[in-house]
Structure formats: C-alpha cells, structure tokens
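Researcher: I've been going back and forth with a colleague about how Tail specific protease domain-containing protein might be arranged in three dimensions. Neither of us has a model we trust, so I'd like an independent prediction. The organism is Brevundimonas pondensis, in case that matters for your notes. Sequence below.
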Amino acid sequence: MQRLLTASAAVLALAFAAGSASAQNFSDLARQDLQAMHDALKANHPAAVVPGAASETFRGWIDAGLQDALSKAGQVNSGESHAYLLRYYANGFRDANIVTSPTFEGASAFFATSWPGVATAWRNGQYVVSYVQPGVRGAPPVGAVVKSCNVQPIADFAKAKLDGFEGDLTTEAGRVATAPYLLWNRNNPMAGGVPSTCEFQVGRRTRDYTLSPQPATAVNLEAAYRASVFTPGAAKLSIEQIDGRPWVHVNSLADNAGWDAFFAQVEAQVAALRGAQGLVIDLRGAEGDSINATARGYGLANRIWTPEFTVSRQPEAGQITYRATTANRQWFADTLNRMQSDPRFVQESGAVIEQTQAIVAAFDAALAAGQQTFVMPGRPSVADTGAANPVQGKVVVLVDGGCTNGCLDTLDLLTRLPNVQLAGSATAVDSIFIEPTKQRLPSNYSDLSYGHKAWTTRQRGNNQGHVPAQGLAFTGNPTDEVAVRAWVGGLF
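Model: Here is an independent structure prediction for Tail specific protease domain-containing protein. You can compare it with whatever you and your colleague have in mind.
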C-alpha cells in the first residue's frame, strides 16, 4: 500500500487551503472536538440516562475521561495525533459503537514513521515476535516472547503505548489487532516511539536487545502486519472447494463488497452447500460496521438454509429503549424521508416505513411529555414452522477478532442452528447501544459515531462477543492459511 501523503501533510494541505488552521493550533482543534464529543454524547447517548451496569462505564468516563484527554491536548501537533487523542477519549467508554474516524487520509493499518524492523503478535496470552525484516541485524528471532521494554513490564508498556490510542486492550480482539504496533513509532507523541531496549525470552533464556529505528517502508510494514494478524485478501466474498467441501468466504460485511454477485453464486451452488460433506462459513475479518451488515449475514443464512427454517431460530428482539432528544428524533425523521424518497424501498419495505413512522410518533409523544426515554417492542419471536433442516452436513463457522458488530448479530443466529460449530478465536465485542448516529466534529477533520438506542433485552450481554468452545479454539499462527485449513479440515 502506497501512502502518498502523511495524515499531517494531508491535514495541513486542507487547513492552508481553507485558511482555517495551521500546524500551531492542532491542540486547540483537539480541545474543541473533545468538548463537542462530550456534549453530543452527554446530550444524546442512551447510557447517560438508561440505568444498569451497561451504562456505568459511560457515566464514569464521560466527564473524567474528558479531563484526562484534555490534559494530553498540549501534545497534539499533527493531524495524526489529533486523531489519536479523539480515539483515546472514544475508546475510554469501552463501547465499540462510540467511534471517531478521521475525514482525511489517516494512519493506515500498515503505517509507521519508524520501527525496529520487528513486529509482534498477541498469541496465547503473550506478545511474540511474528516478523523480522530481512537484513536487520541484532534483532530478536521470530517466536521470541517480549517480557519488558524500557525496564517496564510488557503489560504496563503495552497499556501505555496501545490502550485507547490503537484499540481496547481489555478485549482479546483488541490485543490481537493492536499487537503489531507494540514496538513501532506511529507518530503519536502521547505514546512514544520505538523503545530503546526490550527483554525477550528465547527458549529458556532471556536477554536484552537494543532496538534501532529502521526506515519504515510501506511494503515491509504491510508484510509485517500480515504476518501478525489475519488480513483478508482482495476477494472477500467467494466460494471455493477445499478438501472436498465448500468453503464460503465472507471476509467482509461492507455494503460495497459485491453482494448481488456473491448471493447469486450462493444460490447457484446451494445444493452443494447443503450436502452431506458439510461446509465452512469463514467470517474472519468480517467487519460489521455497516448499518446493513446484519441483514447481509441473515441474507446468507436464509440462502444456505431457508427463511422458513431460520425465522423461528432468530434471537428475540425484545424491547428497545430510545433516548428522547430532538437530535435522536431528527435521525429517524431523516431516515424516514430517505426511505419514502426511494420508490424501490417504498415498494419492497412498507413494513419498515410503518415501523419508522411509529418511532417518530413515539419521539414526538415522549418529547411533548418531557420524558427522557421511551420503550418500543422489537420484532416478536416466531413459532417453529416445522420446516425441515435442508443442510445435511456439519457446518463450521470460522471467526476471529475481525468479526465485529453485525457479524456478531449474524453469529447470534448461526450458533442457534443445528449441526453448527463455532471455531477459530474470540470475536470482537459490541455494546447494547446500537444503530449509529454520525456527525462531523467542529474541526472538520473527524467524525463521531455512537449508538442512539439501547437494546436492553439483548440475549447476548453488553460487551460480549462469541468465543469458540474448548477444542474448537485455534492456537496456531492465524496468518498461516495452510495450517488453518488443515486444522479446520480435522474438525470434520
């Protein structure tokens, strides 16, 4: 991957063109955006008023976290560090649906300003060297375990370097995703650069290694990351035959992944998918951040099985709690207007339009009555139709920490179907505060996204994902596709 501009340069180009910013006021822009994040979340996020354990972290961080983040604002000196500080505040809520995203070309997964020529991976509870750049002398070998850096125990060093800035280290998926950056300089002045000395365990011995910063080239960084974390290839939606059985790749739930062609492929091969030899549904890396992600996952299940078979096994929606604010109402009013302006949607989804109209009316009633919240029933459960299971063989659903949000909703259904085994590694987690509101922050350099309603009766708890059962957890190198496929084949 070729980065034509650093984020700092990109932001400066925007800033000078607009005449509204300079390198000297990124700190002020960060303070302004942090305050705007705080105010929007406090005024509109359901956790501010919905009681229960799921809201406690939000209420404990909304003000205290703002002060923490503001205390770091003086170090913000670039577009990248601006993005890092906003992400730090957002991640502190420990709510995967509170997210800030740069509006410029930010630091990609394969970006660093310098690095020691070494990447690490989080495997079996340890930071392990996963890649060494060819030609780097005096580096620890692949497989060495990091014990400390700059005389800090590695757990403390990792928390200061990665937690909040790169991801959420309280989750297994967060540790996996951020591990490659443990020793890198990602242009975040609040987290430090390449450590000078780290202690590694090599076999039974430990020894110190001096880490020398190396030039960071896009090719080497990408190779290092891909050797550390499973990263989907270019063809994210496809079906292939492996060891005599279909392997259904669903390594993305994005809207632009090519769903029409993929679903046509599924429908054309459905007889083989349902055969006695079994099949694999590969959901590794399936980021489900799109508002349509759950519908994509359910659409796949309905094609492999049938809607008649899956409908009674879908998780009960229960009740949804809405926070009654003018801004939250406007989101639904705008959504309703878009629905009614789309002739195809009007023709095919009249029930959804009626439901949205009822929600807007409920907002109006609650606001008129001065209520902070109101409750609406979700989709009711459906009795078993008696439809036969059309899938004859075992189904292995392969997952990892890249399975997020709508992917987790899809697993809530798939894991209820007969002869389905969940395998791989722990997924990401998501909160019960769902359906994103997205707004531009005052600097124009970042967007804030947050869930505006609370699924308080969701059967999968707050900040819970899916974890394969004992015997179905892959403990090898997740980037070794040959090993992964051989292991999955053994599950049949």
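Researcher: What would you highlight for our discussion?
Model: I'd start with this: The first helix runs from residue 7 to 18. After that, consider the following. The chain has a mean pLDDT of 92.
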